Amino acid sequence: MAVNFSELLKQMETMNASDIHLKTGAVPIYRVNGELVPIKHPPLTKEEVAAIVEKIVPNKLQEFLKRDGSVDFAFSIDNTTRFRSNAFYQRGTLSLSLRRLQYEHLSFDDLTLPPVLSKISEYRRGMILITGPTGTGKSTTMAAIVDYINSTRKEHIITIEDPIEFLHKDKMSLIEQREIGIDARSFEQSLRHTLRQDPDVILIGEMRDRETITNAIRAAMTGHLVISTLHTINAVQTVNRIINYFPTDEQHLLRSDLGIALKAVISQRLIPATDNQGQVPCVEIMIVNDIVRKLMREDRVDDMVQVIKNRGEGMQTFDQSLVDLYNKKLITLETGMINAEDVPAFKRIVGGGYAGDDRSRIIGGF
Questions:
Q1: pLDDT digits (tens, 9 = 90+) for 92-144
Q2: What is the CATH number of the domain that holds 266?
Q3: Which of 67, 210, 254, 358 has a Cα-to-Cα distance from 329 of 20 to 30 A?
Q4: Domain range for residue 49?
Q5: Could you say which DSSP state residue 274 is in?
Q6: What interhelical angle do 248-261 and 210-221 show, nearest 10?
Q7: pLDDT tens, 297-348?
Q8: Is residue 3 part of a domain?
Q9: Max intra-chain CA distance, the chain
Q10: 285 within 8 A of 116, measured Cβ to Cβ
Q11: Are 263 and 292 in contact (CB under 8 A)?
């Protein structure tokens, strides 16, 4: 009897799973609250996995899958059930990974994101970067920012994605969404054309190369709001990664341009919520104010974390975010300690005490 793919997706919703993994010779495996959970099911045959892939991978992308061995795409069951997916070959057979996208709760409060994101979303120009490893909610945060803009002001929003994940309907804004491989050949090419289409807000699914970064910075410096992601773990690494994309002799000018273009870095992790009630985002926020801009120009990027610790303008470190989550009873003390970068400091602050390094001094020279 052939595998019932629809039933597997229904079970994903029943289990409140974020992901499902289908692999030849293995039972379906779900990710629930961050943990992999195999289910009672016969191992999938290569024919069953291949049939599912053929059914859901768009025809235009089937050739890329055969040529490159992997392809990203998205597909929908209905207007509210959509999945970000990747089909790929491993050991000569097909596998499939799908992530369920949550459409119903895109407000910052519902997503347990810091209130300062509302202020960040009100920027009219510059660059906002959402960073973190794969699977930490970057796409959802980007969608929430776009939804906030769409709900509060009249803008022309163009997204460039690979694939399109969240489908946005026009509210106050006009939104046009372009998918790499279907509507455009590459991020870099699509971004160049987008600048001629009178955009106010440009969302770039991911900045993958120097050319895309260059054009994104240029767009941010010429009056557009650019929203994008990088696979970096914090604000300091984000700035270093961007700068290191460029030759040494170009980095001094780039630091100056990046200081002008970059407005905020939102770095995310997902950690288990209290009583296994899903996961909550632990978020570092860096606002590029005059101090951060000066540090960037002077190649004192590592000192930026000291500015973030002061919590001015809504900034916060990961450990400060953990304290906030614990105080709101969204995580346990044990979860906070497991995920803290400085466990003794986390315990001190939770207990109401501070040491010298817990609250940073303003850096000398300002």
A1: 999 999 998 877 678 999 999 999 999 999 999 999 999 999 889 999 999 99
A2: 3.40.50.300
A3: 358
A4: 9-101
A5: G
A6: 40
A7: 999 999 999 999 999 999 999 999 999 999 999 999 999 999 999 999 899 8
A8: no
A9: 72
A10: yes
A11: no
